[in-house]
């Protein structure tokens, strides 16, 4: 008795090179370019259109997937970006921020601290209408689709760059008044520092004249650095929010807003115990200037 096994697909060896190139070219073309209304390709739609256009009469979506994998093409994926205005103002502001990241450890040794601050406003507090059904052997965790909104919370986070440690607060409103009420606690952790380098974006509560006057009057040792316009990605606190949300906000279920606030208050100390570390930041001032020069040339 013989045992038959399906041979592994070998696209490059068995699929005609010219047809393979035609499939790759079709994937690189917008569907509208061939008279279709769909907004993007999937392996199934590429296989269907390739068959109808006579590229390969018997082409399957699994073969299309192999062709795309070999060509390193991913037409099902997309990514957004927002381009800052690359000028001397961008260079100056970006260089100031990047200098702080490059020198964070040395500054800490001189009793100066670099902190990044950012907000995650209007987090919805959601409560499922049915209890979560926990994971079992052979079954993943299951959640009822319907939920009840229990309000929103504005989350403010601070990252100490040289240590990677964080702290968070919740703001009743995402405005300058509520921000200024928290600043004494935010900066009070570093009351013995000779200087505080405070990095944040250009949110209205940060750029408000009252916030500027408050810091200048009560905290003259604070050096405020704004990220360039449309370049808030230079703020390492955004990385912190992403890491924190993945571990402590995603898949959460809270019966009330107060319960969610209690969860936040208990979560940032745990993050510091388990996960806090300096973020690896490889984009230096030299790389930034080269990047700007390349885009302006």
UniProtKB/TrEMBL annotation:
Whether Ribosomal protein counts among this entry's keywords is no
One family from Pfam that matches here is DDE_3
Quick check: keyword Membrane in the entry? no
Q: Which InterPro entries match?
A: RNaseH_sf, Tc1-like_DDE_dom, Transpos_IS630-like
All residue ranges annotated as the Tc1-like transposase DDE domain in the record: 114-260
On the tree of life, the source organism's domain of life is Bacteria
Q: Which GO terms describe its molecular function?
A: endonuclease activity; nucleic acid binding
Q: Which UniProt keywords apply?
A: Endonuclease, Hydrolase, Nuclease
- What is the name of the protein in this document? Endonuclease DDE
The record's listing under Gene3D superfamilies reads:
Ribonuclease H-like superfamily/Ribonuclease H
